[in-house]
Amino acid sequence: MIDSLESDQSATVVITHHVLDIHHDDYENWLKEIGSIARSYPGHLGVMIIRPIPGATSAYTIVIRFDTRDHLLAWMGSADRNRLIEKVQPLLMEEDRYLVQSGLDFWFTPEGIKPKFPKRWKQSVLTWSAIYPLVLGISLLVEFLRRHLGIADHHYLQLLLITGVVVWLMVYVVMPRYTRLVHRWLHS
After folding, report:
1. Model pTM?
2. Residues 64 and 126 in one domain
3. Going by C-beta distance under 8 Å and a sequence separation of 6 or more, which residues neighbour residue 98?
4. CA angle 113-77-116, nearest 5°?
5. Are 16 and 95 in the same domain?
6. Helix ranges (DSSP H) in the chain
7. Which pLDDT value is given to residue 117?
8. Mean pLDDT of 138-165
């Protein structure tokens, strides 16, 4: 599945693989190969691999980032990538799954420049300073509306609503504006 992104924006593909237990070593070798080949494509900005945590998770997640949507699509449709996917398929429990999306790092990248990410601690402070008041405010609003409308207290349903509204506000309203406001500090 590929979301519609503007051609001048950076783009990321997030690939999820569930590897058969007996093939983890082969898969690790495959990861080295795909990383090396992806780096040779125009506009490549980086590869990040999130390995499973024994006893907690079972999926590998590969994040490959390009400077434009067109460069990403060229990689995704390339003969090299198709060959690599055919090669890895016997090692997997299920088919190759991927999603093109923007993530937290995109909140911290001004439009029109090559991505240079601020220090992680600054990203954390900025994100926390935006999330805390949103969670507090939305929680109070949901609780007020629940009581005013006489709706029964459903803790998990309220959390679902609160987190959904907070995430939507963070992605579409708060962080794009907030990062522009504190850009100088964030990138100093």
Report:
1. 0.49
2. no
3. 1, 13, 14, 15, 16, 76
4. 20
5. yes
6. 24-39, 69-76, 79-88, 104-107, 120-149, 155-169, 175-181, 183-186
7. 60
8. 90
pLDDT above 70 coverage of the chain, percent:
85
Decide if 65 is inside a domain.
Answer: yes
* Domain contains 94: yes
Strand, helix or coil at 50?
A: strand
pLDDT digits (tens, 9 = 90+) for 66-104: 888 888 889 989 999 999 999 999 988 888 777 775 544
- How is the beta sheet containing 97-101 ordered, strand by strand? 44-50, 59-66, 11-18, 97-101
* Cα 164 from chain centroid (whole Å): 16
Separation of CA 151 from chain center: 35
Tell me the CA distances in angstroms from 55 to 31, 52, 92, 115, 150, one per residue in order. 22, 9, 18, 35, 43
Bridge partners for 99 per DSSP: 14
The answer to whether residues 64 and 13 touch, using CB atoms and an 8 Å cutoff, is yes
